[in-house]
Amino acid sequence: MSYLPIQQLLKTTHVGTTVTIKGWVRTKRESKNAVFIALNDGSTINNIQAVAEAGQLPEETLKLITTGACLAVTGQLVESQGAGQAVEVKITDVLVYGSADPDKYPLQPKRHSLEFLREIAHLRPRTNTFSAILRIRHALAFAVHKYFNDNGFFYLNTPIITASDAEGAGEMFRVTTLDATKPPLTEDGKVDYSQDFFGRETNLTVSGQLEGELGAMALGKIYTFGPTFRAENSNTTRHLAEFWMIEPEMAFYELEDNMNLAEDFVKTVIRYALQHCADDLAFLDNRLKEEEKTKKKEEQSELGLLEKLQFVISNEFVRLTYTEAIDILVNSKPAKKGQFQYEVSWGVDLQSEHERYLVEKHFKKPVILTNYPREIKAFYMKQDADGKTVRAMDVLFPGIGEIIGGSQREDNLEKLEARMHEVGIEPEVLWWYLDTRRFGSAPHAGFGLGFERLVLFVTGMGNIRDVIPFPRAPKTAEF
Ligand code: ATP
Ligand code: MN
């Protein structure tokens, strides 16, 4: 049996025709004269109302139509008598695909807490909030591919299993087929990874960048968009153990080009979401407004979700150096009053509280910080002439902190090798990476955007675990 997605049905003029809709019952309401069923099929945030006359449906069928049950409803699409919807379906036939025992079905038509919904992550896509988030997530993923395709980038798939442990981007998950209870040992008592599946120690990737650079030095402009893993044991609202990272890498780009790309890219994908997810964003905007009302006046945010997104796409990001930012922070009120948890001075890695002060309090705009101290950044970043800083750039967003981290890369073989020695990485281990500097080296740059941090920003949600269907975090891998 064919059917019409509700999203299409509400858009086109099928009034007067007989239609079949298939979906899950959100609510059922009975009056003296009629039964009203609100159905949702996930194609849109909007439900369609199906109406039967009192006594029209057999009692046994009516009993099975409860919140969560799955139905096929056939009937004439008519202009709605009631307020709240333009059209509705006058039921001629109902088929119950699957019932949902109201005593056991955990999703009832009331507001559930996000914490509770995390415990039933297998069912939460059936809620308005999560279906909206998942549709927006899809639209953003599509917009990412579209942006790069429109701009001459090639999608490069970098490996998920890697042997390079030299990236220094975080703790890694080991990949092995060795017996965990009795692994083979070398003579000096260490695990003998030469007997492991790949004949060496391997891990899940923390970044596709090094391989991305190989692609850029052949194809010019590439991007990756794939799963990324970090075993950081941090239970924050902005970190996942498994997340999706987008990493463009461009030959002949310097730091400034990199910043221009990052800014244009984020603005373009946010604009795409505004254009293509208007209903879902309006729903989340409203949801957030309700949530804000429960907060104290001084804790309420000045902008609503839609206003915030509009604001970001219509204002230039502020650009300044790390050194300038430290100046601002050192002279800031919270620093003078000792209100920062972590102290600031030149050379420290900025904490999220510092990043958010700059973005939310000082500039009230997204900020791009550049030229960080070399000691707190990765070995591959291009060294500045002052010998102290590197050509790094972090894009900082309100409510999020760091959303993008990137840099121009060191393209000089001697400097790169010297830096590797300094930080204790054997250049031989990354011989293949260094070959790009040996043969036809060129200036190049790139960045990494955590996809979930982008979805977090666009949906206005507060916890990164709520913007990925099945979150992976410390002690969390149920579904
Ligand atoms: P942070 O300081 O916020 O932990 P990072 O500096 O370790 O991030 P990078 O190595 O620069 O992160 O990674 C590039 C981008 O990937 C970050 O800007 C962020 O958007 C995203 N990202 C990094 N770690 C995580 C994580 N654990 N979960 C989700 N996204 C992440
Ligand atoms: Mn970073």
From TrEMBL:
Keyword S-adenosyl-L-methionine: no
Species of origin: Spirosoma arboris
Record-given protein name: Asparagine--tRNA ligase
HAMAP family membership: Asn_tRNA_synth
Start and end residues of each Aminoacyl-transfer RNA synthetases class-II family profile domain: 134-469
Entry similarity comment: Belongs to the class-II aminoacyl-tRNA synthetase family.
InterPro entries associated with the record: Aa-tRNA-synt_II, aa-tRNA-synth_II, aa-tRNA-synth_II/BPL/LPL, Asn-tRNA-ligase, Asp/Asn-tRNA-synth_IIb, NA-bd_OB-fold, NA-bd_OB_tRNA
Enzyme class: ligase
Gene Ontology terms for molecular function: asparagine-tRNA ligase activity; ATP binding; nucleic acid binding
Localization: Cytoplasm
Keywords for the protein's UniProt record, in alphabetical order: Aminoacyl-tRNA synthetase, ATP-binding, Coiled coil, Cytoplasm, Ligase, Nucleotide-binding, Protein biosynthesis
Documented EC number(s): 6.1.1.22
GO BP terms: asparaginyl-tRNA aminoacylation
Assembly and interaction partners: Homodimer.
GO cellular component entries: cytoplasm
Primary location class: cytoplasm
